């Protein structure tokens, strides 16, 4: 496998290299990064380094990942918050922290493993053997509604709705800063970041059309509660677009502040609404789910802080 090349930014100076790798390589945990370092798979300026090496910033890193090992998917009894289910589709309210499908560093304990246990063999195969039933994804640290197909016909029908934007997905987020307007649209192409393979960015190079519509729900001065509607569905789209307009999502340590926010396990981004045409009945199905407790708790904290400041 070709080595992955990464160049830390000056602000990464002093960071342990295993922590840096875990935050910049998809699916690589800190323990997995340490194993790579122990095996000499990570080089700095052409030399292998120890797992406790601290970055100086700007030094070139070369990482050689091992070839992926095939692993059989196993059903696992992981609790699911099922919002809707019938013979063709299942919609789940995914918690923050749950990975959608197996990947390097996450061979089990995923939503797919939970769906295999819950649905048995009734999941579509269109997404491939590692992603049975999965029509679209939600980031690990994003919560909310995600739909899976129980047969190939349903999967193809729902995928077509994703392509023509008739499968509507609505999110709520807490963003940093105070939005100048009450509503707006971000129309900016998204592609892979040129030096950080874990990140996406707004770019005209090797990018795809991306549109996010947003509206303000509540203002807190230093933060804003917004609703976002996806017109397209690119990787990390809302997170990238909000950061692009200067309002990264609270708790997003990839596109916003690097330090985690006390009380949050991920970013304050929740897929609150889902609307689609049912693949069998052709009826319009509209679903919603409440905000997770830590999201609601953060809103209450911001409201109290704003009230005190206004007194």
Encode the helix/strand succession as letters.
EHHEEEEEHEHEEEEEEEHEEH
Strand content: 25-35%
> Mean of the pLDDT scores?
88
Q: Helicity, in percent?
A: 10-25%
Residue stretches low in confidence (pLDDT < 50, at least 5 long) are none
Please describe the biggest sheet, giving its number of strands, its sense, and whether it closes into a barrel.
Answer: 9 strands, mixed
Based on helices, strands and strand pairing, what is the structural class? alpha+beta
Overall outline: globular
User: What's the count of strands?
Assistant: 16
Terminal Cα span: 61 Å
- Rounded to an integer in angstroms, the radius of gyration calculated over CA atoms is 21 Å
Count of DSSP H/I helices: 6
Describe this structure in words.
It contains six helices and 16 strands. It has helices at 17-24, 30-38, 111-119, 152-164, 237-244, 293-310, and strands at 4-6, 42-44, 47-48, 61-63, 82-85, 89-94, 143-149, 168-176, 183-187, 190-192, 200-202, 207-208, 211-219, 223-230, 269-277, 284-288. The longest helix is centred in the C-terminal third of the chain and has 18 residues, at 293-310. It is globular, with a radius of gyration of 21 Å. The model has no long low-confidence stretch (mean pLDDT 88).
């Amino acid at each position: 496998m070709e080595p992955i090349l990464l160049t830390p930014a000056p602000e990464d100076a002093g960071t342990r290299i295993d922590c840096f790798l875990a935050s910049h390589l998809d699916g690589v945990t800190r323990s997995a990064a340490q194993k790579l370092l122990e095996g000499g798979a990570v080089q700095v300026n052409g030399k292998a380094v120890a797992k406790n090496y601290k970055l100086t910033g700007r030094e070139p890193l070369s990482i050689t990942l091992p070839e992926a090992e095939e692993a059989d998917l196993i059903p696992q009894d992981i609790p699911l918050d099922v919002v809707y289910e019938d013979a063709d589709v299942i919609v789940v309210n995914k918690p923050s922290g749950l990975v959608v499908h197996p990947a390097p560093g996450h061979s089990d304990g995923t939503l797919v493993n939970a769906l295999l246990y819950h649905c048995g063999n009734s999941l579509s195969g269109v997404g491939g053997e590692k992603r049975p039933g999965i029509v679209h994804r939600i980031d690990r640290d994003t919560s909310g509604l995600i739909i899976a197909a129980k047969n190939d016909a349903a999967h193809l029908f729902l995928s077509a709705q994703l392509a023509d934007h008739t499968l509507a997905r609505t999110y709520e987020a807490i963003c940093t800063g105070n939005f100048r307007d009450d509503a707006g649209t971000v129309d900016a192409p998204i592609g892979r970041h040129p030096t950080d393979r874990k990140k996406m960015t707004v770019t005209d190079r090797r990018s795809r059309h991306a549109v996010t519509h947003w509206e303000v729900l509540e203002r807190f001065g230093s933060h804003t509660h917004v609703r976002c509607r996806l017109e397209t569905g690119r990787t990390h789209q809302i997170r990238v677009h909000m950061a692009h307009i200067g309002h990264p999502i609270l708790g997003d340590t990839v596109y916003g502040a690097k330090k985690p926010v006390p009380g949050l396990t991920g970013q304050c981004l929740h897929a609150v609404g889902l609307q689609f045409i049912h693949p069998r009945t052709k009826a319009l199905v509209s679903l919603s789910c409440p905000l997770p407790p830590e999201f609601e708790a953060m809103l209450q904290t911001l409201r109290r802080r704003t009230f005190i400041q206004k007194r």
